[in-house]
Amino acid sequence: MTKEAHIEVVGLSMAYGDFVVQRDLTFKVNKGDIFVIMGGNGCGKTTLMRALTGLQRPASGTVRYDGEDFWSVAPEDQDRMKRRLGIMFQGGALWSSLTLAENVALPLTEYADLPSPRVAEIVSFKLALVGLAGFGDFYPSELSGGMKKRAGLARAMALDPDILIIDEPSSGLDPLTARRLDDLILELRDSLGATIVVISHDLASILAIGSDSIYLDADTHTMIATGNPQHALQAGDPKVRHFLNRGTA
Amino acid sequence: MTAPLPDYDSLMTTASELLAAGEAGQKLATHRVDEDCLLVVLSGRWCLDQALPSRELVERELSAVVRRLTFDATALGAWDSGLLTFLAGVLKRCSALGIEVDQDGLPRGIRRLLAMAFAVHETDVARRSGREANLLARVGTATTKLFQGAPAMLRFLGEITLSFLRLLAGRARFRASDMWLEVEQVGPRALPIVSVISFLVGLILAYLGADQLRLVGAQIFIADLVAIGMVREVGALMTGIIIAGRTGAAFAAQLGTMQVNEEIDAFRTLGISPIDFLVLPRMLALMLMVPLLTLYSGFVGMLAGLLVSVYIFDISFFEYYHETLRALELKHFWVGLSKGTVYGAMVAFAGCLRGMQCGRSAEAVGEAATSAVVTGILLITIAASVMTIVYYQLEI
Predict the structure, then answer these.
(1) CB distance A134–B112 less than 8 Å?
(2) Which of residues 165-184 of A touch B (CB under 8 A)?
(3) Around B253, how many Cα atoms within 13 Å sit in the side-chain half-sphere?
């Protein structure tokens, strides 16, 4: 049985001026996958995320969501497509002048026509899902790094997106907190059936949650398709094995 | 007595619930399967983009005799947070009433999500009761805050004084290039705005003088008024206020952002005094450049006075020139320069103080910048009054 492609990237190249960060990226993310984009520092992982989420126009190539080409449709259609994406930024990117509850509520009040008691219910449920029940009245500056990340995830899930894009879920977290966040991501995929794209260079996390992956190579400025990270660790491209073994193989 | 306002939120909810009730028959039904067991049948599509049935339809059935709740979701279609919050509410209510809930009838994904949401209980620590204190408490807090500001300011003044002493002893550590960078930012780059404002202020002074002095037929004294006014007083004041808005705010934002990024803590851990490294060069740059800008401002103001006098009030160029030379004694320059130096120090002090006191958020940086400008202008005005009175008493 072939799975349905949720995101299709064809011939994508990204550049800053004359400097090409990555070229000819072609891959598919299937529905219900946890797709890991991995690679070393400065290889263009975050740039790829920016191209996927509409923050930065790629130099060439297409990004399709359910067959619809993101970069060639009208801005209004892009906005409609963006609303189906939930994005968790590296540091949470919570709005510092709003409380956690207001952070999570903002997408709901902007885009869903719901009465305010209902919004409050959804907000407290989402915060409870990421283990932050009761923290709604806190400001982001009053939280630890791990809590900010989880709150960022709650905000990303506010509109029940089909696709969650998560930038570096485990960086800056202790192993136990990182593990809990990984479990949360797996649980969300299983119970919501969402497609999840994770950008990561954390080996434990990549191996624990990834069901498919690509490796962005900083030297050749292009990708190596690697499939399931567990398999790549055993019998993948030498470069990827080198990366996944922390340089010892 | 005024009647209490209706609760519009709940009215809105009721309205949408009435709409929902029409569809509720298809989505939600409750049956008593046993004497003490309530079966909740969920069916159809449960998504937030349409009206959903209210929890009350279930809660109404939870009378005293019901001890158990079960679900049938065989006909359930697509669902999202709308269903989850509905169920979470029902579950909470049941646990409050001590009713046993059998979730086996729910899809596995929903069961797991609900389990996750209830895994962490709200702790008393996390729960915050109303943030709004009463009026009296707020006035009290604000007042104590006001007085807490003064010691912090004094402490900062003390630290800067120590830093200056270290500088004199040749032990202050900072990079000279940082200071020259600030000098460039503060000095040459401020010239355009200082020119425009000084020219216009000089022009205003000349008109003001012309109007008053015409009454006694002594219009030539426009030159004295403009020259002494600009050099002694107005040049320094205008420059100080411009620099407070331009540079004081920038200092506060720079240092505040460094505070947010823990850069200032990084200096401290290396045993480098952030006062020496960050505040001192900024202080020196302003104390050096503001007097120079003050001189320049006085010159531009006099130029404006000259142009107005020659072209509008028919005073000859040479008359004005000689009158200006006669009026301008060296002491006026010293007064202007001393004021410029003090204002520069005030602006740097206010900007750096607010920057160093900055909290750790984007909002705090904005507050620091605003507060730096307000404090700077306040300090300048106080210093201006004190110095003007002192110089008058000393007959300088």
Answers:
(1) no
(2) 184
(3) 11
Per-residue pLDDT at B1 exceeds 90: no
Q: What is the DSSP letter of B216?
A: G
Say if residues B265 and B272 touch (Cβ distance below 8 Å).
Answer: no
Distance (Å, rounded) from C-alpha A188 to C-alpha B116?
Answer: 10
Asked if B54 contacts B90 with a C-beta cutoff of 8 angstroms, the reply is no
CA B224/CA B209 separation, integer angstroms: 10
Tell me the percentage of chain B whose pLDDT exceeds 90.
46
* Domain edge (last residue) among B119, B141, B162: B119
pLDDT of residue B143: 85
A137 with B131: Cβ contact below 8 A: yes
Please give the interface size between A and B, counted as residue pairs whose CB atoms are below 8 Å apart: 81
Q: If you ran DSSP here, which 8-state letter would residue A16 be given? A: E
Q: Which single residue is written with the structure tokens 């506060």?
A: B252
Tokens 């030498």, residue located: A238
Question: Do B309 and B170 belong together in one domain?
Answer: yes
Rounded CA separation A38/A232 (Å): 12
Looking at residue B38, what is its pLDDT? 85
pLDDT at A133: 86
Q: Where do the domains of chain A lie, and which CATH numbers do they carry? A: 1-84+162-249 (3.40.50.300), 89-160 (no CATH)
- Residue A81 CA to its chain's centroid (Å): 15
Please report whether residue B138 resides in a domain: no
Q: How many CB atoms lie within 10 A of CB B37?
A: 17
Q: What are phi and psi of A148, to 5 degrees?
A: -60, -40
Q: Is B127 close to A134, i.e. CB distance below 8 A?
A: yes
Sequence-ordered list of residues with C-beta below 8 angstroms from that of A132, at least 6 positions apart, any chain: A100, A147, A150, A151, A154, B120
Q: Which residues in chain A have their CB less than 8 angstroms from residue B113's CB?
A: 129, 187, 191-192
- How far is the CA of A48 from the CAs of A44, A54, A195, B28, B319, in angstroms? 6, 10, 17, 44, 73
Residues B161, B299 within the same domain: yes
B331 and B243 belong to one structural domain: yes
Domain that holds residue B34: 14-119
Pairing of strands B28-32, B37-46: antiparallel
Strand (E) or helix (H) holding B158: helix B135-168
Give residue for tokens 């029902």: B90
Tell me if B251 sits within 8 A of B345, measured CB to CB.
no
DSSP code, position A141: G
Tell me if residue B262 falls in helix, strand or coil.
Answer: coil
Q: How confident is the model at residue B13 (pLDDT cuts 50, 70, 90)?
A: very low
Distance CA A106, CA B375 (A): 35
Residue B158 lies in a domain: yes
Q: In the Cβ-directed half-sphere of A82, how many Cα atoms lie within 13 Å?
A: 16
Instruction: With cut-offs at 50, 70 and 90, classify the pLDDT of residue B2.
Output: very low
Question: Can you tell me the distance from the alpha carbon of A168 to that of A46, in angstroms, rounded to the nearest whole number?
Answer: 9
- Residue B107: CB partners within 8 Å, gap ≥ 6? B73, B76
Say how many residues make up chain B.
Answer: 396
The winner for highest mean pLDDT among A127-141, B14-28, B279-293 is: B279-293
| B119 contacts A131? CB cut-off 8 A | yes
Is a pLDDT exceeding 60 seen at residue A118?
Answer: yes
Asked if B364 and B286 sit in the same domain, the reply is yes
Q: Is B135 within a domain?
A: no
